[in-house]
From TrEMBL:
Record's keyword terms, sorted: Fatty acid metabolism, Isomerase, Lipid degradation, Lipid metabolism, Lyase, Multifunctional enzyme, NAD, Oxidoreductase, Peroxisome
Matches recorded under Pfam families: 3HCDH, 3HCDH_N, ECH_1
Name of protein: 3-hydroxyacyl-CoA dehydrogenase NAD-binding domain-containing protein
Domain of life the protein comes from: Bacteria
InterPro entries xref list: 3-OHacyl-CoA_DH_NAD-bd, 3HC_DH_C, 6-PGluconate_DH-like_C_sf, ClpP/crotonase-like_dom_sf, Enoyl-CoA_hydra/iso, NAD(P)-bd_dom_sf
Organism: Paracoccus albicereus
Amino acid sequence: MQPVTMHVREGIAHVVIDSPPVNALSQPVRASLADAVARVEQDSQIAGVVLSCAGRTFVAGADINELGAPLTPYLPDILADIAASRVPWVAAIKGTALGGGLELAMACHGRIAEPSAKMGLPEVSLGILPGAGGTVRLPRLVPMTTAITMITAGKPIDAKAALDAGLVDILAETDLLSEAEALLHDLPMGIPLLERPVRDADAIDWDAEQKTLRKKSQGAQAPLEALAALHDAASLSAEQALAAERDRFLRLAVSDQSRALRHVFFAERAAGRSLRDLQAEPADLSCVGVIGGGTMGAGIAVALLLAGSQVILVERDEASAAKARTRVDETLTASAKRGVIDASGHAAALDRLKTAQDYGALTDCQLVIEAVFEDMALKREVFARLDAVMPASAILATNTSYLDVDALAGTTAHPDRVLGLHFFAPAHVMKLLEVVRGSATGPRALATAGALARHLRKIAVVACVCDGFIGNRIMNAYRNDCEFMLEEGALPQQIDAAMESFGFAMGIYKVQDLSGLDIAWAQRKARAATRPADERYAHIADRLCEAGRLGRKTGRGFYDYSDGKPKVDPEVTAIIEEESAKAARTRRDFTEREIIDRILTVMQAEGQAILDEGIAESADDIDVVMITGYGFPRHKGGPMWLTRG
Ligand code: T1G
Ligand code: NAD
């Protein structure tokens, strides 16, 4: 069957794209669509066209597998033919109209959308820009400031915002297709879109926009190219701007950044696939238990509450339970401020939270996540108690950062129901969930982890048991090497600057100060007894911790935060220089390139060891962990991708 079909009813042609899962515009879809366009032109019985899609969504854009290898017929040519059609076309939008899908809708003469629909030009997230007229058509429909935001940030807008901005003509009230037909009849045959002026571009300060965007993009090229294309749209004829947009698109489509970003797109979707393919029935997630309501426990509770679950949060005493509730409430307030929920959503979420000190309150939960202090003896005690009270079908998870999940499972009578669920702070925001599979973890526990990731809209990556799993193990390795660089002559601010100019969201020292230096300190102390005597060890971080410098929470860490912002502290420089002298290192200068090369080399070697030991399921998973959990620049594709690039 052809992916695009057409049937004519009372002079109206219904052109329907049907190419699961998301109606992407692959070459066969384009060929079939071009054919439908030609048939419309030839059939004088047709007075108008409703363009719609089968399945759950309108067109999700070009087929990402084909980017960089353009095949005829080209989308811009098909869109030009639709725009120049002798009859009006109306796009009937449901689900998402993204990228080439929205460009297709904009080439039509009218647009109607279901109220739940979303529309966007997300191309920059793939390292490209709209390549089928999006930068030229969008600012003729919506004000230029809206077009700049939509195209340079790549975030979709909802149907109501699209209506207000002028991107769609009406919202469907009951039946999308019959209302689309009605719109065809009402549509004024106005001036063709490309002959209209761009909207409200005079007020734009292009230099200022570029400056702000350059800072925000952290080395990504596509947003800046997209802005330049919008500037073309405002300053050139439509025809010239379309040609310039196409040039930029073709150049970016073969760039290293776009190749890297496409790799990440597919790697994120492949991550955790082994959890989805399991036959086992996952635990029910309508009521989930959380033990410990500190930084992580409260964040995990918020993530669950926002996803609609009931949460039973167990703390060690009444005062800690009250503190945990306040922490959850404050986090929900912050979520409301960011527009994630409204006031009634906030109240309803808080209503779904119950705090307790007694494990008996947990018996209705099929999943319990432990997030108490990082202390093996305490965690063993918690698991033994859980094992005693929870029904045998319940799944027991630990949020430990480093501890041995197998040893914890060993304290229970049912080790097959125990696994690690390693969330990242803040747990209600960070997308990554490392699923730690113990040697005895059973399929139901794993299937539950997969279901939980979907429920919370997180990306699950499976890891086996080792010190630090995938992410913390790699971070420990490069953090150690960074400390060696400090001993050899570098300073924290130089290493942070090198990482940030490579594109990391934050350098390793600012990150450590933010999350606190104490967890890793405790872990180093725990390992001290078994550390080989000849292993190189830098004492700088230990010295800072001993001096009470535990990071931002104590006002001082690798930096001084007395003014709120990280400030270089001579006391830290002095400690580093002393440690260099003690280790008999001659201090020397490091270039940014040298610093980054060393960090990447260590990340890649540790990543390879993790693969060789079977800790991670694939090199792509390691890239996903470093990008979604540790601030590795997405447009660089991840450390393992760089070894292949
Ligand atoms: N091409 C190819 N495959 C795609 C695809 C696409 N555009 N979009 C999704 N898939 C696959 C995906 O890999 C997965 O496969 C399955 O569909 C379901 O996706 C000319 C050049 C539409 C919001 O960037 O944002 O247009 O893993 O798991 O959560 O200017 O997919 O099952 O085998 O993500 O419901 C611009 C990308 C392209 C949109 C649905 N468009 N897609 O989310 O399902 S460039 C995009 C999405 C372009 C033009 C330019 C989301 C979604 P598998 P999923 P979902
Ligand atoms: P935290 O100190 O902020 O919170 C721990 C909470 O556990 C406290 O509220 C405490 O009252 C409670 N608690 C202690 N003993 C208890 C008991 N017997 N019963 C019930 N509650 C008890 O610690 P955190 O940063 O939230 O870390 C918790 C766990 O998550 C640790 O295992 C840590 O390694 C891991 N983790 C932390 C981070 C992070 O960035 N902080 C990230 C991932 C994982």
